[in-house]
Amino acid sequence: MSIKFKLIKEAKELNSNARLGILKTEHSVIETPVFMPVGTQGTIKGILPKEIESLGFSIILSNAYHLFLRPGHELISKAGGLHRFMGWDKSILTDSGGFQVFSLGKINKINDEGVTFQSYIDGSRHFIGPKQAMEIQMDLGSDIAMVFDQCAPYPATRRETEIAAKRTFQWAKECQKHHFKKTQSLFGIVQGGIYPDLRKENAQQLIDLNFPGYALGGLSVGEPKPLMYEILDEISMILPKQKPKYLMGVGAPESILEAVSRGIDMFDCVLPTRNGRNGSLFTFKGKISITNSKFKKDLTPIDEKCQCYVCNNFTKAYLRHLYIANEMLAPILGTIHNLYFMNNLMIEIRFAIKENRFDSYKKKFLENYCN
RNA sequence: GGGGAGGUACCAAAGUGGCCAAAUGGAGCGGACUGUAGAUCCGUUGGCUGAACGCCUUCGAAGGUUCGAAUCCUUCCCUCCCCA
Fold this sequence. Notes:
Elements: E1 4-10, E2 19-24, E3 29-32, E4 34-37, H1 49-54, E5 59-63, H2 64-69, H3 73-78, H4 82-86, E6 91-95, H5 98-103, E7 106-111, E8 114-118, E9 125-128, H6 130-140, E10 144-146, H7 158-178, E11 185-190, H8 196-208, E12 214-216, H9 225-236, E13 245-247, H10 253-261, E14 266-269, H11 271-277, E15 280-281, E16 288-289, H12 309-313, H13 316-324, H14 329-354, H15 358-369
Parallel strand pairs: 4-14, 5-6, 6-10, 10-11, 11-12, 12-13, 13-14
Antiparallel strand pairs: 1-2, 2-3, 7-8, 8-9, 15-16
The chain binds one RNA strand through helix 5, strand 14, helix 11 and helix 14.
């Protein structure tokens, strides 16, 4: 089956366009708003698939670009698809590689057919265009595939941004043409940088192509946060109400709250996992750097209110010791805690929307988190 | 007792007349991280000052040579290795 999205509830509050939904795929039922942990190379670094599941996640993100370069999508196809290859039987969303092609390594040539680039691994030359991006993702067998898009950097001139948006639209059409896997749904990606009119035009064109879901790309790439929120204000509401809206690459708890408030349903970000590995741990009072010397003798958990395995069993002093000593358990535990925090945040968000108190929840959270 | 090597910043270790407040590691301290080239990266670590500039005190100790010494000389203290 392709995905099914059902809008359950729209907030009936002032200052909030938050919404609740149910997203069904071949592999799982997902309540939205949802946060998807990132497992670029077919693994969420440092944590077992069964652990991801027990933390409450039923969809993760992986990446066509990386898996194409290594180990190759043909192999994964032979292995029975990415789900089986990586031992994860819930949902997977794959990014097309558009973002990676433009943000990594060396680009040799871009034209309307696609991009010739050099592998960051060995410098070898490769070509990916909309057709290839579809082939790769169909081989991977993800539940949701993304169109191959061109992500303009920040800052970028209006002209550059416009070219990228136009090409993204052209490629979106090509992707549709080459996508024919019934069990996989293909989402469109809206580009247009920080230019509202370009965004709107691009969004409208993509809406006409009737994708089952829409992503906002090219945000959170370095622009000031208020600017990102402005764009969300402008674009989120013109996207079809009955379809999931996905803000790619976001992330930070405060950004998620602001985006949910603007009607976004799906998020993915490396932040909780990467920060977890690097000793930056989320708490409801903000991030802490667990390696700070002030935690050396702190025999309390990371977050008194947290019910995660890490907080139930270990002290800050112990965790700090593991990080300082470079023990491999350190990034593992940091990842578990941060992912638990994110999932818990999403649960609280959904509950607050359900009870028509999302806006006050958001304010209270931000008050604690940002001070 | 004989022969040899050596003492440099928190640790290890370069430097052997001026470009040295002193390379480089490690350790410490701080920061960053947003569709993952990341168990990574950046900054900082003698004192004073607000990262500059500057000034002050440093290369085992004390004296000396020199315009100038971590670097040369003298004496002393200490450590290590080999042979008896």
